[in-house]
């Protein structure tokens, strides 16, 4: 029981060609291109998935913050001639026509993007998936391609898979992959307590996770062949919190002597190096600054806060406090000179406390609150630093939250009837 209490304490402690000038995207100031999305899936075999991709694409384009999006209220014929003069009079810059159908082997979707200002077909692409239920990813790829056509800031994070653990009943959880909207979901690991999934590489072909057997055990699951490999086990707790860019090193939180510390695990040699030596609790290590340093959460001040040390490990005078706002900061993610962290702001003994997200700069006194209420935890920067994904808990269920930093846009995608334990993307 003592080991379980330590785990629970540490858990709570702890996403071309030259273009017409009218299509230029100016962040924060508008001048957004108007895009009209049309569904051309009129045939019976095309109706279901054409409509699904049509709706998902409209939602994706709105999420980018780079378009003024309109949807055609009726299904149109792909053979219908486009009157570009009428579109220009209506101030429509782009027309996206989409349809999809299931063939013998694949779900096949098509996108035709017309530029009303030039009167030309700008893009004509086909997208395929062997699994029809993964149609959201086809829509996400369409949105990425349309976004790239107008040379807007990248939104490639949209097609990344999310890996998450959620509780199914007391003491049990399963691991799913999903798209960022949680529309597509696939169960991968079930039975027992399966927690803290972490992608093992940039290509998202494998992930690490912790399973509670006789003691906490770290596994690596290979999505290409479905094989599960045991990595190591430890007393107390064991969590893989970050993976190096070349996939050869892991940052682990382990408590072999009932004291949580940060460890570096070399994947090829299986060598383990202890990085922190504090007598209290150090958890949730993350590589920062081109993997020269490690950021982590510690109770060195008498409450959880964010610190950093050189990758070589903790030595006298090497520990740097990274955040100076908040009195209980229990999770953090870094991108460049910015840190996003979750801070507890109430101390209610009988009700769920409020945790809000904050963005701070390590080079100035800049601080920005990103959430206003509720329980907002485990923030994660996208690869480009413009988007943050996090978990929001409300009632007895959770949602994936998306914050588009440069566009003052926040969206929530609930996992109905369940509580998310942790996620990675």
Automatic annotation (TrEMBL):
Gene that this sequence comes from: tolB
NCBIfam families reported for this sequence: PRK04043.1
GO CC terms in record: periplasmic space
InterPro entries assigned: 6-blade_b-propeller_TolB-like, TolB_N
Keywords: Signal
Signal peptide: 1-16
Name under which the protein is recorded: Tol-Pal system protein TolB
Keyword Chloroplast: no
PANTHER family: PROTEIN TOLB, PROTEIN TOLB HOMOLOG
Organism: Helicobacter ganmani
Domain TolB N-terminal stretches: 22-118
Biological processes per GO annotation: protein transport
Domain of life assignment: Bacteria
